[in-house]
Amino acid sequence: MILQQVWTLKVDRDESLPTDVHTEWIKYHTQLPLLNVALATKISRIVYWTDSTIVLHWIRSSSHTLKTFVANRVAEIQTKTNTSDWRHVPTDDNPADLISRGQTPKEFLCPSIWKNDPRWLLQSENYWPVWSPTPVVDLPGQKKTICLRTNISDNTLLHRYSSWPRLIRIVARCLRWRHKQHLSAHLTTDELTAAHNRLIKILQSSRFAPEIRILQKNRSEEVGGKLQPLNPFLDEDGLLRPKHPIILPKSPVTELIIEQEHRNNHHTGTQATLYAVRLRYWPIDGRSQVWRTLRRCVRCCRANPPPVEYLMGDLPEARITESRPFTNVGIDYCGPFYIKERRDRNRRKIKTYAAIFVCLATKAVHVELVSDLTTDAFLAALRRFISRRGYCATILTDNGTNFVGANRQLQELRTLLQSDDHQDRVQNFLADRQIQWRFNPPNSPHFGGLWEVAVKAFKRHLIRVFGTELLTFEHLNTLVIEIEAILNSRPLTPISSDPQDPPVLTPGHFLIGDTLTSLRERDFRTVPSGRLSSWQRIHQIKQHFWSRWYREYLNELTRRNKWDKGKHNIREGTVVILREDNVPSMQWPLGRVIKVHPGADGIIRTATVQTATSILDRGVKRLVPLPIHPDPDEAERPHGAEEVTNDTPDSTARI
């Protein structure tokens, strides 16, 4: 008992015992010599008593019928003792319970059942308890009930094929085989008609069995549900009709019929396909069935890919974090613009470009004219920007493939941005200054929407003023800087109609403390220095601008103006169409998604797609999933099931 307490307390060997345990051990230690005096009796015979009938059954049975752990110990008992010496004692007369309940040596030596009882031990063996084991054959059997639940897949003939004409011809072959006719002969019109009617009857019986039984009893007035407005009847072939068309329930077979009519009519729309189907059939909820079926047409999807909506991602951290203007910037090019070499007439025209730098936090704009599309010109513009605005931490740019388009002149810019020499030199230049350069996914201009808007606004002002006039470089540079000031004076928040409200916040407030197009300030040179604002006042004004930026500007960015919902069904293995600009939709390449790249919110934003010729990275807005196996029922349909017949090829049975 003391050891059990030590194990319960988890006392290590090197630790001293707790006070209560140590006191109890001293008590046992002083009383142990009393046991030596009491054990001076010689034992001539041993009878083993136990109150467990299960143990007695084990000892009297063969050990090989027991479990391994029990069998090993029972075999040892049977080897060292005689099984006839094992007897049963009632629990109330079992002295061993005193030990299991726990007693001190002194209490153990007091008069108790261990020393004097049970009283029948003092009598002859005829008065000892007798235990009669129950034979195994008399024990009631215990059976375990196991419930096995399985998913039964529907592999009926109606759901195994993806072509309505092929299904009809297969049923016609089965009917010919049933009547023991020649299987190799061509199918006749009567046989195809009989197979068609048999399929329709099976389909209607599986969905409209109660209504058919009512009509067979000539009680058409009792027909209810969706068939009631149609006033159906049974024709001579037993088919359910409202007048002339055949009624079709919602089923995969109805979808096969709609697909066939859709292909026969050269992939017409929902209305025209429904009209073609109703010439012979009357599908229940026909318009919704046709619309749902046409959505899964691969050829229609390739010809007119549906718009794919995805939830707009959260704003990047650089957009919502207070930082010095132009700490994180986005860069984009626009142009070319033509200028004249000198002021004289008939001078040759020279191309020039504009590099737009946009601050991600304040939307401030910085514009630099670039003489040509070379790495040296780009690095020179970047040096001028850094010298005026300070070092930045991150530069974001579009990928070079974003400039693929109808404009041949933008091809030069794409070539520059994709060249290894340009990227190496720019990367080295930025790495020396501890500036990170990141690219957006190819063909995903919405990732750089902030600087795309700035480019659009810059070109709008420039073209309206510039027009077709040829300016010199100095005149164009002056105009560009004036437009830059106008862009930095745009309000960041809606303008209030209350004259008591503070002036609207603009990017210029973060650059010079006011809008760049505002009137000149009052001359403070004649004001005594004691009345001028201190440096703390200037810092307070700066913090006031940022507090308004948090309170007014960021609240406007919280609401998603578009892409506020979407179904995210792009995953690895999805077959997709890659949207390409200025290319007919039927020529857009097909690919399979081999890797997805979730954003910070866990929603997939970009994916790696493998096409027949290359591996590309694309934003999910440029991918259109093909409607292949849109639901589990179609996904489980065997692909090769339609080839089990030796039917004569039919051009109308193609998929």
From TrEMBL:
<dbReference type="GO" id="GO:0003676">
    <property type="term" value="F:nucleic acid binding"/>
</dbReference>
<feature type="domain" description="Integrase catalytic">
    <location>
        <begin position="321"/>
        <end position="515"/>
    </location>
</feature>
<feature type="compositionally biased region" description="Basic and acidic residues">
    <location>
        <begin position="630"/>
        <end position="642"/>
    </location>
</feature>
<dbReference type="InterPro" id="IPR041588">
    <property type="entry name" value="Integrase_H2C2"/>
</dbReference>
<dbReference type="GO" id="GO:0015074">
    <property type="term" value="P:DNA integration"/>
</dbReference>
<dbReference type="InterPro" id="IPR001584">
    <property type="entry name" value="Integrase_cat-core"/>
</dbReference>
<dbReference type="Pfam" id="PF00665">
    <property type="entry name" value="rve"/>
</dbReference>
<feature type="compositionally biased region" description="Polar residues">
    <location>
        <begin position="646"/>
        <end position="655"/>
    </location>
</feature>
<dbReference type="InterPro" id="IPR040676">
    <property type="entry name" value="DUF5641"/>
</dbReference>
<protein>
    <submittedName>
        <fullName>Uncharacterized protein LOC117215262</fullName>
    </submittedName>
</protein>
<feature type="region of interest" description="Disordered">
    <location>
        <begin position="626"/>
        <end position="655"/>
    </location>
</feature>
<dbReference type="Pfam" id="PF17921">
    <property type="entry name" value="Integrase_H2C2"/>
</dbReference>
<dbReference type="InterPro" id="IPR036397">
    <property type="entry name" value="RNaseH_sf"/>
</dbReference>
<dbReference type="Pfam" id="PF18701">
    <property type="entry name" value="DUF5641"/>
</dbReference>
<dbReference type="InterPro" id="IPR012337">
    <property type="entry name" value="RNaseH-like_sf"/>
</dbReference>
